[in-house]
Amino acid sequence: xxxxxxxxxxxxxxxxxxxxxxxxxxxxxxxxxxxxxxxxxxxxxxxxxxxxxxxxxxxxxxxxxxxxxxxxxxxxxxxxxxxxxxxxxxxxxxxxxxxxxxxxxxxxxxxxxxxxxxxxxxxxxxxxxxxxxxxxxxxxxxxxxxxxxxxxxxxxxxxxxxxxxxxxxxxxxxxxxxxxxxxxxxxxxxxxxxxxxxxxxxxx
Length: 204
What we know:
Blueprint lengths: L9 H8 L3 H12 L5 H11 L5 H10 L6 H10 L5 E7 H4 L9 E5 L15 H14 L9 E3 L5 H6 L3 E4 L11 E3 L4 H17 L1
Parallel strand pairs: 1-2, 3-4, 4-5
């Protein structure tokens, strides 16, 4: 989600809403530089959000800098009888907001406000593949019926597993693995590239 659908991170937008933007940027930087563990990262985010209300979470979600055209893209997919599965390392309580915009299902790191943090809360890259495989099996679909979208190193396993892939404003580690590349701020354009992949498979 972060970087692919959201032109920011859930952590930064939650921290911004709670008036602790600097703290949000700080823990993001420390985590990226491996100066804090995943567990410490989540504990810090939960501390930032400890006084957050449902309205605060909703405002953080609604005011975040999303890619253009998300709801329209999701609506087109659903109209075709297809599903949108969003799998993200962002906290589950934030990712769930995309279900209101039409996502069929969402998966995030096991981080919930007011709940104890488990020892392995982070949704790992290999889990993205497992969840996608499970969703396909539940629908009697094959890997070739799926298009994956991503932007970062956490999507490498997805892109090496599934043939149809669209890299959205990708990190250097992901770009060489993608079937298609999109640079920009409108997810409808990235989605059009994904549909081209499915069309080319059908024609073959």
